[in-house]
Amino acid sequence: MAKMTLLSRVSDGLPLAASMEDEKDHRELDSYKAQAKKIIKTLSGASAGKMSIESGGSTFHYVNQDGVCYLCLTEKAYPKRLAFLYLDELQKEFNLKFRDEVDAASRPYAFIKFDTYIQKTKKLYVDTRTQRNLSKMNDDLADVQKIMTQNIQEVLGRGQRLETTMGKSERLLEASGKYASNAKYLNTQALIRKYAPIAFVFLLIFGGLWWRFFR
């Protein structure tokens, strides 16, 4: 079943709740954690509502709904149908209990107590051969087949391109600001050069008249 489950706010990637399995190779799990954070970083309100992302011998599955990403990591052979049923259960319960608190959350893992429900639900999906899970896998198979599956490199590459585009946009805005400032300065200098001689002549005439009539 799920080696890792992570709930995050989509707008800024803030982790809201999580559940991790003990792994012998912590470096591998740390690598998957980093990939999960990058996946969430690529999401927005316009992203796919559900997706599977293959990474080596494992697969990320996520549900993106109501501003929250519900993501889990399973073995590649684990049935996609069950993975999404698991995430759907988490989504319904979390939305029922904490929907109005998500936007106000200001610290990581503000809903860590939700891990109790994650652990309880995860146990129901450990054995794919139980009658309960076999029945669920046979329901609505067409729906799960429509869920897109991508490779982790495709997804992370798209995220890097998005970051690059955003970086270029920021640099263009900065350059535009500098250009506008320089243009304003040059216009001011041009006006001074144009009207300074005229002002000087008027000043001389005014000074001469004042000297003549008021000295």
Automatic annotation (TrEMBL):
Residues 6-118 form the Longin domain. Its main location: endoplasmic reticulum. One of its GO terms (molecular function) is SNAP receptor activity. The chain crosses the membrane at residues 195-213. This is Uncharacterized protein. Pfam families: Longin (PF13774), Synaptobrevin (PF00957). It is found in: Endoplasmic reticulum membrane; Golgi apparatus membrane. Keywords: Coiled coil, Endoplasmic reticulum, Golgi apparatus, Membrane, Protein transport, Transmembrane, Transmembrane helix, Transport. GO terms for biological process: endoplasmic reticulum to Golgi vesicle-mediated transport; protein transport; retrograde vesicle-mediated transport, Golgi to endoplasmic reticulum. CDD domains: Longin, R-SNARE_SEC22. Residues 133-193 form the V-SNARE coiled-coil homology domain. GO terms for cellular component: endoplasmic reticulum membrane; Golgi membrane. It comes from Prymnesium parvum (Toxic golden alga). Coiled coil: none annotated. It is a single-pass type IV membrane protein. Belongs to the synaptobrevin family. PANTHER family: VESICLE-TRAFFICKING PROTEIN SEC22B (PTHR45837).
